[in-house]
Design brief:
This protein is 33% helix and 22% strand. It is built from three helices and five strands, in the order H-E-E-H-E-H-E-E.
Length: 119
């Protein structure tokens, strides 16, 4: 855990709830939430299996949910909290959405600002 990530522990608990929801639905065990100004603005379980959609990772779904709720694709000021380290696709989506920070796993590992490695 790095400095400042402990305040995200309640949000990791919400990401874990999303992970359990994915497992209960018969999907892969991943969950994610998007946080802005101390509140969840997007949340989702993995839906890869249940939606037969290879892009329906929990992080992608949470980013989509946040964009819908906020009415904007611009997620500047947001933190992506996920149960595991985001894959390259999810990190790239977070980059393009303007997510400012990614934190993952039970140890609240701070992955910093999303990076774009090229597609």
């Amino acid at each position: 855990m790095t400095k400042g990530t402990d305040t995200l522990r309640p949000f990791m608990a919400e990401a874990e709830t999303m992970r359990r929801r994915a497992l209960d639905a018969g999907d892969q065990g991943y969950g994610a939430v998007v946080v802005k100004d101390g509140r969840v603005v997007g949340a989702a379980p993995s839906r890869v299996v249940t939606d037969s959609d290879a892009t329906a990772h929990a992080e992608m779904e949470a980013i989509r949910d946040a964009a819908r709720r906020l009415g904007s694709a611009d997620l500047t000021g947001c933190t992506l909290v996920s149960t595991s380290h985001p894959c390259a696709m999810c990190e790239t989506a977070a980059y393009w959405a303007g997510v400012e920070r990614m934190v993952h796993g039970g140890a609240l590992s701070d992955a910093g600002r999303p990076r774009y490695g090229g597609c």
